[in-house]
Amino acid sequence: FTSTRDTLDNEMIGPHLIEEGDRKDGEGVEDGMAVGEGDVVHDGGEVSEAEVLSEFLNVPENVETVGSASVTNEICETQNNVELSDIDRLNDVDDEAFNISVHTSEEELQPTVPLITPREPPPQLISEPLPSHSPDPQSPHHAPEQSSQFLSCIPQVRFSSNLSPLLPTGLHWSPCGDHLAVSSDTSIQVYSPWQDSMEDADLTPSASIRHAECLYSWVWTSGPSTTSPTMLVTTGRYQPVQLYTCQSNSNNRLDIQLESTYKCINQLDELSHAFSVALDRTSSTLYCGLKGEVRVFDVSRPGRVSTCHVTRGKKGQNGIVSCLAVSDVLPVYAAGCYDRTVGLYSEQGDRLCVLRGQLGGVTQLAFTKDGTKLFAGGRKDNEVLCWDLRQPGMVLYTLQREVTTNQTIQFTLSPCQKYLSSANTDGSVRIWDLDRQADSVTGVLEPAAGWLLHKDASNGVSWHPGGELLATCSGQRHFKMDNEMYMEEDEEVEENSVVVWKMS
């Protein structure tokens, strides 16, 4: 009986464990190895993937890690049931020969799942639709599960507004989808498209936030609870970080109130402005990116008390932390820097790894909801890189877009996490189906659809939480030539506008 049981364990578990675990720790790592694009870097030099994974991929209880691939309990339980059924079938044979009852348990058999390669995208987790507080029955708060039919349709204008002379720099939908915020150099204007039921109506701002100096970064997220008002956080030059609470009134307009301020104080006891801000999933922790460091505030404790996470170092990030993103499921956050690097840090501030490979300064980061991928885009960089967080340092694929200026060009994930849309400086908007396979030679994932929606550079794009609307904005700085050198045929078209498109 002992021999038969050992043979069974080796047949079902052995080959998989040997395949993923046959490489010894530290194998292939040499001291003094040069750091190249895509390398994973620690303070002490280059380390193995296994050490990095064991250090920071402490996934929640409902996610298990096998080798370098993260799988959900649903997949594990399914495979475990299949294995148990196979064992029961073999036990019947053993009972006839030895008349011995063999008992199995989940503790004895660990599910084994092969590594998910770039050619086989991981299973996507579908987010639940956010509840709507809008009284308008035409407000499109549908389930975020999207059909691919919109890829073959031409987007139709639902709402639009001319922002001239303001130059839009980005836009975001509110978490409930009732309001749309558009930022410019020194202000944020909030529109409420559902305050009337007219189609193709011109948008008029219902609220605004003004800054005395240049607006660097802002984020709009849900409150700590479902009954709490949403939070809008801004930061600007020579200004402290400001947190506003946003709540809809009876007329479906937005009431914005300044709730608290957070000051980043330097070693000279002077105010240092933050270049980027981000809130965690529970809206209880505020991250502020400065030059060579990240300040962490407790949202419930405004003022100057903060924790400093140093990013600068010999192999760290020495430039301005231009963008931040916090994972919903992993206890890590990502910091993008103008020195073309992306750093991953634990909640305690430990530097886990530094990802190199961007051609321009990083301007935007986005985690997928399942925590397996991180998208990064930069200025004057035509590639959006998709990093595989199950194998840090490995690029799953790249997305080709048009970015020829230093301005931030937004990209956004759809509510169902199946599509990614990006603005382009040529005025177009492109959409990629993330379930498709990338080219095995070039590693490029081709776009599934694209439309020329603006006559000027498109710099902002945001997907409505319902999935059926896409908001875009356009505009860039134009420098006029002298009258003697000016020619009629070289006249450039200026378009500073925001448009809401119906995708189906």
Low-confidence stretches: 1-50, 52-80, 93-143
Distance between the termini: 63 Å
Overall average residue pLDDT? 77
Counted beta strands: 33
Q: Structural class, judged by helices and strands?
A: mainly beta
Largest sheet: 5 strands, mixed
Spatial strand sequence of the major β-sheet: 9-5-33-32-31
Figure out the total of helices: 4
Molecular shape: globular
Summarize the structure.
It contains 4 helices and 33 strands. The protein has 504 residues and is mainly β. The longest helix has 26 residues.
Describe this structure in words.
The protein is mainly beta. A five-stranded mixed β-sheet has the order 9-5-33-32-31, with no helix packed on it. Strands 6-7-8-10 form a four-stranded antiparallel β-sheet, with no helix packed on it. The longest helix is centred in the N-terminal third of the chain and has 26 residues, at 73-98. Mean pLDDT is 77; it is low at 1-50, 52-80 and 93-143. It has helices at 2-12, 14-21, 49-56, 73-98; strands at 41-42, 45-46, 63-66, 69-72, 156-162, 170-173, 180-183, 187-191, 201-202, 205-210, 215-221, 230-236, 241-248, 254-262, 276-279, 285-289, 293-298, 307-310, 321-326, 332-337, 341-346, 351-356, 362-367, 373-378, 383-388, 394-400, 411-413, 419-423, 428-433, 449-452, 458-463, 469-474, 497-502. It is globular. β3 (63-66) and β4 form a beta hairpin. The chain contains four helices and 33 strands.
